[in-house]
Design a protein that fits this description.
It is built from 7 helices and 7 strands; from the N terminus they run H-E-H-E-E-E-H-E-H-H-E-H-H-E. It is an alpha/beta fold and 260 residues long. Helix 4 crosses helix 7. 36% of the residues lie in helices and 24% in strands.
Length: 260
């Protein structure tokens, strides 16, 4: 819950399905980046906001029994089966709970910091958790592709959703600044890339977006940001195979903490 706006609520019936669809789409890119970084046996890794746990499990497989993975979330109900001697699950709020200092070879966070108003301070907190020569990988959404969306019912729904999230402190324009922010934090070998989808109505990713919007429906209506008819017409676009939309970008940025 962010200032009265529910988003990514693990108690909501469709949330596990939404997270599974996000994993299906974005895990391949995350996996490739982790391989490129060089995550290997014996590493100690931190997965912040682990969600349904797919990347935490992948990291546990890569680091093996000689390594360690810590998976955190404020609600760990989807991580209950993530059990291994070298995989720890912490019920943890990154905004207020402490993290160990200089303990991790890798810290990874995906689609979380943009939701939190104190995002840049939290990024510094993650950098502090890195060992010397440790790597930080941050993947966050940016809404710049949606500016190409033509006017119409879905555009109206996007605009209403954007206004709601901005009022709650969410920043879907922050990710484009991540390379500069990571470099300014003292990390070296900073790199970045972005993935942008053109999503078809009725597809699995359209279903994922619809599930996210459905969680926000009541807040949108209560704040009079859109009418019931406007919401339903915009949401219907996501179920229409004849409709194609510019989706959010996923911006990935990584950097290494200097060695002592």
């Amino acid at each position: 819950m962010v200032k009265g706006v529910y988003f990514s609520d693990h108690q909501w019936p469709g949330e596990r399905r939404r997270l599974a669809l996000l994993q299906e789409r974005y895990d391949p890119g995350t996996t490739r980046r982790l391989v490129d970084i060089g995550v290997t046996a014996g590493w100690t890794c931190l997965e912040v906001g682990a969600g349904a746990g797919s990347i935490a499990r992948l990291l546990a497989d890569r680091v093996g029994p000689d390594g360690k993975v810590v998976a955190t979330d404020i609600d760990t109900r989807f991580l209950e089966d993530a059990v291994a001697p070298h995989l720890e699950v912490w019920r943890h709020d990154i905004t207020c709970d402490p993290l160990p200092i200089a303990q991790f070879d890798l810290v990874h966070v995906r689609w979380l910091l943009d939701l939190l108003p104190e995002r840049e301070a939290l990024l510094e907190k993650l950098v502090t958790a890195l060992k010397p020569a440790g790597w930080l990988l941050v993947e966050e959404p940016d809404m710049f592709p949606t500016a190409a969306e033509s006017l119409g019912a879905y555009h109206e729904l996007q605009e209403a959703t954007s206004a709601l999230l901005q009022s709650a402190g969410v920043d879907h324009q922050w990710a484009r600044n991540l390379p500069t922010i990571l470099a300014a934090s003292g990390l070296i070998d900073v790199g970045a890339e972005a993935e942008v989808d053109i999503t078809r109505g009725g597809s699995r990713m359209a279903e994922c977006r619809l599930l996210g919007l459905t969680q926000l429906r009541e807040a949108l209506l209560q704040r009079h940001l859109i009418t019931e008819e406007g919401f339903d017409q915009g949401a219907a676009c996501l179920s229409d195979p004849g409709y194609w939309l510019m989706d959010l970008a996923s911006v990935a940025t990584w950097g290494q903490k200097p060695s002592l």
